[in-house]
UniProtKB/TrEMBL annotation:
Signal peptide: none annotated. It comes from Serendipita indica (strain DSM 11827) (Root endophyte fungus). GO terms for molecular function: 3'-5' exonuclease activity; nucleic acid binding. InterPro entries: 3'-5'_exonuclease_dom, RNaseH-like_sf, RNaseH_sf. This is 3'-5' exonuclease domain-containing protein.
Amino acid sequence: MKISHQLCDNHESITSAIAKLSNANILFIDCEGKDLGSQGGTLSTLGLGIYNSPDGYYNSREGELTIYIVDVLAFQRPCSGSLDNKHANAQPDLLRSIFDLLASSVVLKIGFDLRMDASELLHGYGVRLTCVLDLQVADVVSRTEEDEVRSLQRLMGRFLPAQEILGNRELYKKVVKLNGLDGALMDQGIKTIPKKRVDHSRWMLRPLSERYVSYAAEDICLIYSLYTAIRDNGKVSLMDAVARSEGYIQYHASCRPSKDDIYQRHGLMPLDEHGDLDTKRTRLCAGCKRRLSSSQFPSLKSGVGIAYCFVCYAVNRRGKLREKRK
Ligand SMILES: [Zn+2]
């Protein structure tokens, strides 16, 4: 498969990209920026990939993955002298054409953990990312048949000590550890070469070096690989995963989360607000501040209090155990 990427930072390159992107039914998406989606966050680049193959198959050897890295700053109005002269004739309307694709309900956007991307687009640009397949959700769905032991093992060591989990299985059996992109690829049998690190505090510097453009493009390649693997594996109903992704990516729709809020920023799957028991009783969680079904909280007889939902209890417990170790 042929893979290419190009930086779009002027009128000519973005106009050409828009023409290609507008004809696609599926866009692979990934954003980069400083504290993306959080309070004080800023978007730097918007990566969009399209796949074309002569025979119409997604994993065809003849196919081509073309990645456009849109330098968002290049199309915004210059601010406080931080941008150089080439941005003086900024054209926000060109970005609008791209944003319309992101908000379109007929173009499927495929990404990995799009919660912060969606937060940044919504709170920073008023764009509601719509019609999405979040592969982090698809990855969780692909583990549905995993037994409880394997599910608990995913938490052990990486999130909480094994003895804590094994001694309190009832408290942790609903807690699902999320995979990062590498972990999800590994679970699908795809080995990746560790990415060369970049200093994320430099995403707002211009000109954007080729190293940063390649870094952004590489994520799109990995997302494409994960998508084809999950789809070909056949374990996940992609329609269901799309339906679940819609709610998942809007997790921060009410406001940007604080970078320091441990209950908003953790590697656990947020609980479904309805729970799995037929109960209309709800409770407000003291951690995530969400109103959830009472079935998503430890019971009174567990003796650990009922203020936190199962996920926030795990987050709180991790914080306490870390404090103790200091
Ligand atoms: Zn909670």
